[in-house]
């Protein structure tokens, strides 16, 4: 098919695809899935951090956390807009999320149990997210790539803030150090899982990479994340909860243990520690908010009618 | 004018923004629409920022080696000086936005007056804050109008919110000795003098929202003097102050 | 058998009753009928009484000069050893009574076995508690049957509660090194051995209640080892421990 | 009317009226109002204390408080049963409460703000209640009098527990003493109001006293309460928030200031600090519990049918 070949050549040459351009149905479908899932992750991702906003230890920490979840909602907004250029509405995506037809990152199905988790989420979870997102600034779909540029700038800021919390905890009291270690213990493997299973087992990988929707293999990114994070843990005086971790001179990176992929598939299947609560919270918010959305629409319609009548 | 009165006055400013900011922050991730999530987080952020300034100055005035965080995190209910309205639970988005509007209309008038305070520090904080309050007021008024004049359901919910909150509005205009001292020295306006501007704005907006202002002007009080808060504040503090209470002296 | 393991074992007993007792006490004055208010208060009271005994003994075994109250009021989430199910929020009366039933059926079997413990103190506490647990189980089973086999609405609500809570039941029968030590020395039964009696009772009752047992036997865990509680426990502690945290060392 | 005269003579002679006896419509109506109001007060009275059950400072205090609210629910049960003998159902009374057609004691419209309030409620509120209830053990209506006997025994126990909390607080830290004083400051006048306005202004008094539904005047009971409580406050080292309090040798009691009756009428009119929240909590509980009550009734009906079929 010459159209399809021309499309692929344009991508190979580093060109951007824009909303009005022709694109293969699979490209469109995969992008909607991927951008939508990313957007949903920003939205659901507000909840584990929102869980500590009301318990933030200082006014400054509360302000920083508020600003962060506000950014996340903003990222959600950019991403939903990017997905909407592909012919799906935000409400359709919300409904797909609420009904379990669309996913969000499995990491947000883990609970935040102490203040140190606010540090660990920023340091590890945002850190892992950035590994994924930085290359996506060069993704082939224009609106997605441009959204990523804005998002990456803020995410790296969030990661630094998370690391700053960890530094404070690790320089603090015994209880704070214990909290920090406990947070690392709980978030280490779930963070590794964020990159997805080894590419051999990943369904969408080869075609997505050809289309430049996916820029690196899962294993590449995971390795990069481990290589970046292990020295940071050492700097903090924390122990990565993996006894097998060891520098491998030959490959120029760390050897490390695989996460428990059974747990990963359990979480995907809905059996993560917080799947039910996270989704229930969003559904409840959506249902409780119906009268507000309807009221606003009705008022906007009245205003339009009044304006037309006045013209 | 004595320092103790100025301290009380600053606590009243700072506790209002602290407690309302906290309430608003409870919405995180649960608003009716993404735009509202962002707007609520933004409002909470502004209010917490203002709290840092007010309580920071209060701590200096007190001169008892306490910080803004100490004031926020280590006082028990009886030492809080916010009005009762801001500690009311969120209940639903209608109550939240109605409370916000009733407060914003007051806050805007108050900060406008405070930006002319004889105390340069207060004038400076107010000048910074009034820009935020203007934006908050525009937004909450707009939302109250949209929902009051929306569907029958949204109208009923907004009327219900107004009826419930109205008895908590009067406390904003109460005066006592502290206020008298502040007014006499040009530091802060007598709250009673803010009522006309508030009335005008509130009546105008609620009329556009097709909502009826309750006729009974009974006013609950006891928050800004600390004499009698609601039961809700204590529950809020169990969350707000948890970490500082559980790990005293730790640095975060 | 070392003291550290016995301490862990006693925390598991005492934290279950403490946390569930607290959850039940949240119903105060809000139950669907006056008789339920009384029954729930009674259950909470029994569970808190049992907590005093378990944590009292735990504190002695630890020998670190802590009291039962210190253990209840001054540990943070990670040091709690209750199963996740008991820290789940009440949600509604259906969830509350279903959780109670699933726990009571376990608790009754556990206490029956513990009343034959080689540790005379444990045997004594269990013998006292098992009478209460018998009554709790009779009552919660009866209520589950009535509501499961009541109206369509009550049936649907109970099925919903069962579906949600079922993945939290499996943790009751998990074993680890601590349990192995306890079983080896005849102090406490291996939890796995309690499953048959529990299954029998639960299947019997749920069948009378016309409810379907979920087929998926996935089990959440992390509570009884402390590895990973739910987010709900931390919020509970902000309330439960408030006064002791805010006024350390005071006598009440 | 000879029937009415015989009725009054029986009461005057100290006899008891029983459910099946003839009674004037006004006697029945007044008793339903009074017993119902008393029952509702026990039910609503659970809420201000329930507010602190989840924050009780020790396991023992939590147990004592739980036992107390359980007793109160039990008192409610006795009283609803007593009222039911007069031809009204408990559900009818609940509905009248929820709709504001029946009242409950105004004291429960005041908030409980610190742990010391658990002491003050026991000491002052239960103390004032007992002043009212002890003579009602001799009231003319049999079921009511017998309910009162059981209730009084437990109430005086509650009062001692409340006083015990106050003693602990007053022997405690500066903050605890301040809490105790603050609680007395807030509960003093509302407790005085519990006896109702001066009898001159009380609507039901004269007839009720003739019928022995009311055994003492409001002012008598208030005086008795003040005389009992002022020395207790002194013993605790607390200051009653009334500068005019003074021993009056001539009357053999204390002179004291009247409470602010405007506030009393505000609270009666629904403008107390907690009227809205208390009633809303009960309504919510009643509405949320509807499916449970209906489910239980439906199951009981099925069981009856099955039993009949089996016979």
Automatic annotation (TrEMBL), chains B, C:
It comes from the Bacteria. GO terms for cellular component: cytosol. Pfam families: PaaA_PaaC. GO terms for molecular function: phenylacetyl-CoA 1,2-epoxidase activity. Keywords: Oxidoreductase. InterPro entries: Aromatic_CoA_ox/epox, Ferritin-like, Ferritin-like_SF, PaaA_PaaC, PaaC. It is an enzyme of class 1 (oxidoreductase). Gene3D superfamilies: 1.20.1260.10. GO terms for biological process: phenylacetate catabolic process. Its EC number is 1.14.13.149. This is Ring-1,2-phenylacetyl-CoA epoxidase subunit PaaC. It comes from Sulfitobacter undariae.
């Amino acid at each position: 098919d010459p159209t399809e070949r021309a499309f692929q050549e344009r991508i190979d040459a580093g060109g951007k695809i824009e909303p009005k351009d022709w694109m293969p149905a699979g490209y469109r479908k995969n992008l909607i899935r991927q951008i939508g899932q990313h957007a949903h992750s920003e939205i659901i991702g507000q909840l584990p951090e929102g869980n500590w906003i009301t318990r933030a230890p200082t006014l400054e920490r509360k302000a920083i956390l508020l600003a962060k979840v506000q950014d996340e909602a903003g990222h959600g907004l950019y991403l939903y807009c990017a997905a909407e250029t592909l012919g799906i509405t935000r409400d359709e995506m919300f409904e797909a999320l609420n009904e379990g037809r669309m996913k969000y990152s499995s990491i947000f199905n883990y609970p935040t149990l102490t203040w140190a988790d606010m540090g660990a989420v920023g340091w590890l979870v945002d850190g892992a997210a950035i590994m994924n997102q930085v290359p996506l600034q060069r993704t082939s779909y224009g609106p997605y790539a441009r959204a990523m540029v804005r998002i990456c700038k803020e995410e790296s800021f969030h990661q630094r803030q998370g690391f700053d919390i960890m530094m404070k905890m690790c320089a603090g009291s015994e209880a704070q150090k214990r909290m920090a270690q406990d947070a690392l213990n709980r978030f280490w493997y779930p963070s590794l899982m964020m990159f997805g299973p080894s590419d051999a087992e990943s369904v969408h990988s080869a075609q997505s990479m050809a289309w430049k929707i996916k820029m690196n293999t899962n294993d590449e990114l995971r390795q990069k994340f481990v290589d970046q994070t292990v020295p940071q843990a050492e700097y903090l005086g924390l122990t990565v909860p993996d006894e097998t971790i060891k520098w491998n001179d030959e490959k120029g990176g760390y050897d490390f243990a695989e996460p428990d992929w059974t747990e990963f598939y359990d979480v995907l299947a809905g059996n993560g520690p917080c799947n039910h609560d996270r989704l229930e919270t969003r559904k409840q918010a959506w249902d409780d908010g119906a009268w507000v959305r309807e009221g606003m629409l009705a008022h906007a319609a009245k205003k339009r009618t009044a304006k037309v009548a006045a013209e | 004018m004595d320092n103790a009165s100025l301290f009380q006055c600053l606590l009243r400013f700072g506790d209002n923004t602290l407690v309302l900011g906290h309430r608003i922050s409870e919405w995180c991730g649960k608003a009716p629409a993404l735009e509202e999530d962002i707007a609520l987080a933004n409002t909470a952020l502004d209010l917490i920022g203002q709290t840092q300034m007010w309580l920071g100055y209060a701590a200096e005035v007190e001169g008892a080696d306490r910080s803004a965080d100490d004031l926020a995190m280590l006082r028990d209910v009886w030492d809080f000086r916010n009005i009762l309205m801001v500690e009311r639970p969120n209940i639903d988005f209608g109550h939240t936005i109605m409370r916000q509007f009733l407060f914003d209309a007051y806050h805007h008038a108050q900060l406008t007056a405070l930006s002319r305070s004889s105390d340069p520090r207060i004038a400076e904080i107010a000048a910074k804050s009034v820009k935020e309050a203007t934006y908050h007021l525009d937004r909450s008024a707009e939302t109250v109008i949209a929902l009051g004049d929306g569907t029958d359901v949204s109208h009923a919910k907004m009327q219900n919110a107004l009826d419930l909150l109205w008895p908590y509005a009067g406390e904003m205009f109460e005066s006592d000795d502290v206020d008298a001292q502040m007014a006499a020295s040009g530091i802060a306006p007598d709250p009673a003098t803010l009522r006309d501007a508030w009335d005008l704005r509130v009546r105008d907006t609620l009329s556009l929202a097709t909502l009826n202002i309750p006729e009974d002007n009974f006013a609950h009080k006891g928050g800004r003097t600390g004499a009698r808060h609601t039961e809700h504040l204590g529950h809020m503090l169990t969350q707000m102050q948890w970490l500082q209470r559980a790990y005293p002296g730790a640095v975060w």
